[in-house]
Amino acid sequence: MRKYLKMIRRGDLLIILFLMAASFLPLGVFSYHQANAESADHIAVISVDGNVVKEFVLKDDGQTETYVFRDDDGHENVIVREGTQIRIDSADCDDQLCVRMGAKDGIGETIVCLPNRVLVEVRGTQGATDEDEEALDIIS
Region 115-138: what's the mean pLDDT? Predict the structure, then answer.
């Protein structure tokens, strides 16, 4: 073991310390973006099969809004917005995973009901628009 320790030089230790410090860089970047996103307004987008059905503005107004989604097959999801949080209150699917996911309020958080094909996604009002996303492709 000692012969391996003798092979390590001062430059090797500097490189190792630099790489260890650089590994924390993404944490700092993501924390910075999340802190800036907290001050922005949030929108909850409810979509079924990729089509937007309803949007809620998540603001702290003390009100509760309820939206009942029924599809052509008779499946039902009750979606509730309480202030800055949104959740699926009840669903007629067998597994009830979407109900157990709880309330969401952070940008990028989602609630998915796979049997009923319902997606609830929290987005920020600032940032990329649909036109910007469509302009991006694999080459650019």
Answer: 70
